[in-house]
C-alpha cells in the first residue's frame, strides 16, 4: 500500500515537473512562427486551387468527350433535373464553405498577430534599435518576400471563393497594427492599388447585373465592405 502511494506520488511529481518545464521553456522564435504560418497559407491555398482546377477539368471532360447524341441528351436531362451529383459539381468550385472550412483565415490572422506583437514589443523601452529605428524581423521578412503582393494575387483570383474579401481585411489589419508606413514600399502600394482598381470595377459590374445569384450578392457585399474598411485605413 505504502509503495503504491509512493509510486503515485512520484508519477504526480514528474507530471508537475514536466508541465513546469513546458510552461517555462522559451517561446518559439516569432520569425520562425511567421514563416511557418505563411508557408501553411501558401500550401493550403495551392492545394485548394489545384483541386478546383481538377474539378473544372473533370466537369469539362464529362460534357465534351462523348459525341453520341443520345449521351448528350442524357447529360442535358441530368443537368436539368439537378441531381445531387451535378449540383455538387457545379457548386463545389465556388462554394464559400471551402474557405470557411480551411485554416487559411486562422493562419493569416496569426500573421497579423505576430506583426502586432512585434510592433508592441518594438515600442517598449528595452526594444533593440538600429540607426534606422526598430529591428522588426517579421516585418522585414514580409516586405522582402513580397507577401502583400502574393496575397493580392490570391485575392484577384478569388479562389477559394471569399479570398478577395479576406485579403482586403487582412491587409487593412496589417496597415492598422504596423506604425511604420508600408504604403511607400513598392511591393505594397503597387499590388494594393491594382487590387483596389479591380475591386471597384467588379463593384460597378455587380451593380449593373440583375441576374446575380443570391450567393454572388453576399460575396459582393462582403467584398465591398472589406474594400471600404481598407480605404478608410489608408486614408
Provide a descriptive summary of the structure in words.
- With 235 residues, the protein is mainly alpha-helical.
- It has a domain at 94-123 and 135-234.
- 77% of the residues lie in helices and 2% in strands.
- The protein has eleven helices and two strands, in the order H-H-H-H-H-H-E-E-H-H-H-H-H.
- It has a two-stranded antiparallel ribbon.
- A hairpin with a 2-residue loop joins strand 1 and strand 2.
- The longest helix is centred in the N-terminal third of the chain and has 35 residues, at 30-64.
- Residues 22-26, 78-93 and 126-132 have low confidence and may be disordered.
Compact description:
With 235 residues, the chain is mainly alpha-helical.
Task: Produce the secondary structure layout.
Layout: H1 2-24, H2 30-64, H3 69-81, H4 84-92, H5 97-100, H6 104-122, E1 129-130, E2 133-134, H7 137-144, H8 147-157, H9 163-177, H10 186-208, H11 214-234
Antiparallel strand pairs: 1-2
Helix pairs in contact: 2-6, 6-9, 8-9, 8-10, 9-11, 10-11
Amino acid at each position: 500500500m505504502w509503495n503504491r502511494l509512493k509510486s503515485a506520488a512520484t508519477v504526480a511529481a514528474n507530471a508537475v515537473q514536466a508541465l513546469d518545464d513546458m510552461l517555462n521553456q522559451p517561446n518559439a522564435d516569432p520569425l520562425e512562427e511567421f514563416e511557418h504560418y505563411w508557408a501553411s497559407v501558401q500550401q493550403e491555398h495551392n492545394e485548394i486551387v489545384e483541386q478546383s482546377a481538377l474539378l473544372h477539368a473533370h466537369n469539362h471532360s464529362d460534357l465534351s468527350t462523348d459525341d453520341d447524341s443520345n449521351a448528350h441528351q442524357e447529360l442535358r436531362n441530368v443537368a436539368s433535373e439537378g441531381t445531387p451529383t451535378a449540383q455538387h459539381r457545379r457548386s463545389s468550385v465556388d462554394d464559400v464553405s471551402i474557405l470557411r472550412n480551411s485554416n487559411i483565415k486562422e493562419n493569416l490572422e496569426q500573421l497579423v498577430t505576430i506583426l502586432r506583437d512585434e510592433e508592441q514589443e518594438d515600442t517598449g523601452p528595452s526594444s533593440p534599435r538600429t540607426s534606422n529605428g526598430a529591428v522588426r524581423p517579421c516585418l522585414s521578412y514580409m516586405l522582402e518576400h513580397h507577401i502583400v503582393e502574393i496575397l493580392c494575387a490570391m485575392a484577384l483570383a478569388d479562389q477559394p471563393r471569399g479570398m478577395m474579401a479576406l485579403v482586403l481585411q487582412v491587409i487593412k489589419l496589417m496597415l492598422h497594427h504596423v506604425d511604420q508606413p508600408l504604403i511607400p514600399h513598392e511591393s505594397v502600394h503597387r499590388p494594393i492599388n491594382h487590387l483596389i482598381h479591380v475591386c471597384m470595377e467588379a463593384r460597378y459590374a455587380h451593380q449593373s447585373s440583375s441576374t446575380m445569384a443570391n450567393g454572388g450578392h453576399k460575396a459582393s457585399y462582403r467584398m465591398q465592405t472589406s474594400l471600404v474598411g481598407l480605404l478608410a485605413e489608408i486614408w
